[in-house]
UniProtKB/TrEMBL annotation, chain A:
Organism in which the protein naturally occurs: Accumulibacter regalis
Protein name: Acyl carrier protein
Gene3D superfamilies: ACP-like
The organism's place on the tree of life at top rank: Bacteria
InterPro entries: ACP-like_sf
From TrEMBL, chain B:
Organism, scientific name: Accumulibacter regalis
Lineage: Bacteria, Pseudomonadati, Pseudomonadota, Betaproteobacteria, Candidatus Accumulibacter
Protein's name in the database: FkbH like protein
Length: 78, 556
């Protein structure tokens, strides 16, 4: 999968969980409603859609759309 | 129509074997919420991430649930308790077992459940799991120790779909050790099995179309040996047959020639279902809504206790428009999906199968023979003697609480006060020294109809106030109403030494038979008004029980 198609999945997951329109510059820092509870829902939704499972170490760093997409791309690359 | 179509389309997501989380979150079903239950949640781990997943399942059944979440509390103090329709104990058992043994935890849990039961009359769902040997049975025993307490085994619910219950990754972020897959499976179980089974009257019958529902193909075109029993259809038929064994009526509603349908079931030995499994058969070229009305009437059930399954959305829409109370399910080409829709259909699943449930199906078949005998015998006493009719009365029967609550909540026609006591409230009446709960069981040589009436009477001053009076529709029309009610009240009035009986009346949409019975008893030509209607106990004592009926008290 390429960056764009992964990003599309992440944005869909984020929009479904946060119930709002989202953009690719969304991060936990600039989005107050993206709290820890919503975060696990987003992560689980992305995992479900892409049939992957993040490690506990990876989960700590998934705090923006770009970092989630980047982590998935890195996995695909290795 | 549009909302119904959306519901049918949603079935593929809601009831898939592996629930797609994103599709579930994006699902939008018409929000005509006609039921708004409140649920208190007492917990020591997170449920917040599971609640949004329940919403589409509740939308599917037109419910909007208000979950009231307390803070995490390992001590279960219930300090902020307010009345609610249901209570959930959402407990991570592992947290408790760090500091105490399993046996100590169970003893403490029983004590906390008793404390909650003392303040709440709502059903209580104990949602947890155990990894201890025989832990599940012991948790079940704790739940069974109190009325209207149900054990929801989270481990077993996940095991059914082969998904892991726990995931260590989620504990830190979500405050719960439940895995992503477990959350999906448990959201569905909570919304479709556990809460409806605790809060709703049960579904009592499933009416099924034949072609492209119970098999693949069209009987009239493909012929008896041309229609196909796929593995999915075989599994669906086996599941449907298992419902019958649990006391749920089956009915067949098909546009076909009856002779073709009879030939099909006679020839196809590979079919798990046989024609005799259906308590009502409507094979006609006429309107299916009219057929379903006749089925509800024949089975003596209300239309809202019936689920209709058909592969034709047009038929379903027509039924939904003409009989909006009837539940409708779209039969998918994938019969495994149809089986799961039925398996999760709210109100069909039971916490436990009561012996009364299984009697219902066989008792209906005996009615045909009873009606034939009644037509032959002119003298009612001869009729009762011929059938060996026996009424068994029991006072404050603690072993029948679930059945009595079911009668209070499902009886619409012969229900005088419509108090709708739930299981915990019936249990409280049984415990009260100033109340008398009497059950009536009806048997004859053809079948055991089971417990078919309940009378709850309260001692208030000089009066015995009849607060709840219900007779099941399966016992109506057998000319036994006077004997059942007045025999019970004679005993209760004598027990308390009252001189007056006051019948509480509430006017409902369908309780005319009960109102007409009371009008006749008190010698009134009009329908009795809402409120209390007083009768001297002397009048009760003048009443003789029906001749030819055997009367027994407390299993004599």
């Amino acid at each position: 999968m390429d960056y764009k198609s992964i990003e599309e999945v992440v944005l869909k997951a984020l929009a479904a969980v946060l119930k709002c329109e989202v953009t690719s510059d969304f991060s936990r820092e600039n989005t107050p409603q993206w709290d820890s509870l919503k975060h696990i829902e987003v992560i689980f939704t992305v995992e479900d859609e892409l049939d992957i499972q993040f490690t506990e170490d990876e989960m700590g760093g998934l705090d923006s759309v770009s970092s989630i997409v980047g982590t998935i791309l890195t996995r695909h690359a290795t | 129509m549009e909302i119904q179509t959306t519901r049918y389309e949603a079935q593929a997501i809601l009831f898939s074997a592996k629930i797609p989380r994103l599709a579930l979150l994006n699902l939008s079903i018409g929000k005509c919420h006609d039921r708004l239950p409140t649920v208190n949640v007492w917990r020591n781990h997170g449920i917040e991430s599971l609640i949004p997943l329940t919403t589409p399942f509740f939308d599917y059944q037109d419910w909007k649930v208000d979950f009231r979440l307390g803070g995490y509390d390992d001590t279960l103090m219930f300090g902020t308790w307010q009345a609610a329709d249901a209570e959930i104990l959402w407990l991570d058992s592992v947290r408790f077992l760090v500091n105490m043994s399993f046996g100590e935890w169970l003893a403490w849990l029983a004590q906390r459940l008793a404390a909650l039961r003392a303040v709440s009359r709502a059903p209580i769902i104990l949602a947890t799991w155990s990894n201890e040997p025989r832990g599940t049975e012991r948790l079940q025993a704790v739940a069974d120790g109190l009325p209207a307490v149900y054990f929801a085994d989270l481990q077993a619910a996940c095991g059914e779909f082969n998904v892991p219950l726990l995931d260590s990754r989620s504990a830190a972020l979500a405050g719960t050790p439940l895995s992503s897959f477990a959350q999906l499976v448990l959201a569905r179980a909570l919304a479709c099995h556990w809460l409806p089974a605790a809060l709703s009257p049960p579904i009592k019958a499933v009416a099924l179309d034949l072609d492209n529902t119970l098999h693949e193909g069209v009987l009239g075109e493909d012929g008896v040996h041309g229609v196909r029993l796929t593995p999915g259809h075989a599994a669906l038929q086996s599941f449907v047959k298992s419902l019958r064994a649990r006391g749920i009526f089956l009915a067949l509603v098909s546009r076909n020639e009856l002779s073709d349908v009879e030939a099909l079931f006679a020839a196809r030995r590979d079919y798990p279902l046989c024609l005799a499994d259906f308590s009502a058969v409507e094979v006609t070229w006429g309107d299916k809504a009219a057929a379903l009305s006749r089925i509800a009437s024949a089975l003596r059930i209300a239309p809202d206790a019936l689920v209709f399954v058909d592969d034709n959305p047009g038929e379903l829409a027509s039924v939904a428009m003409q009989l909006p109370q009837v539940h409708t399910v779209y039969a998918h080409p994938d019969a495994d999906l149809t089986r799961r829709v039925l398996g999760f259909y709210p109100g069909l699943w039971r916490w436990r199968v009561e012996s009364e449930d299984t009697k219902r199906v066989q008792d209906l078949h005996a009615n045909t023979e009873r009606e034939a005998l009644a037509a032959e015998v002119a003298d009612p006493a001869d009729y009762f003697r011929g059938l060996q009719v026996k009424l068994t009365f029991r006072s404050d029967p603690t072993e029948q609480l679930a059945r009595l609550a079911d009668l209070c909540n499902k009886t619409n026609q012969f229900n005088l006060a419509l108090r709708r006591f739930n299981l915990a409230e019936v249990a409280a009446c049984v415990e009260r020294s100033d109340a008398r709960v009497t059950s009536v069981q009806l048997t004859d040589r053809l079948s055991d109809s089971g417990v078919i009436a309940v009378i709850v009477a309260m001692s208030q001053g000089e009066q015995l106030v009849v607060d709840e009076l219900c007779i099941s529709c399966r016992a109506m029309g057998r000319q036994l109403e006077d004997t059942m009610i007045l025999t019970a009240l004679q005993e209760s009035a004598a027990f308390f030494g009252h001189t007056q009986v006051a019948f509480r009346v509430r006017i409902g949409p369908r309780n005319q038979p009960a109102l007409a019975w009371l009008a006749r008893l008190i010698g009134q030509s009009d329908t009795p008004a809402a409120g209390l209607h007083v009768l001297p106990v002397d009048k009760l004592l003048e009443f003789p029980p029906a001749e030819g009926v055997v009367i027994a008290w407390n299993d004599q």
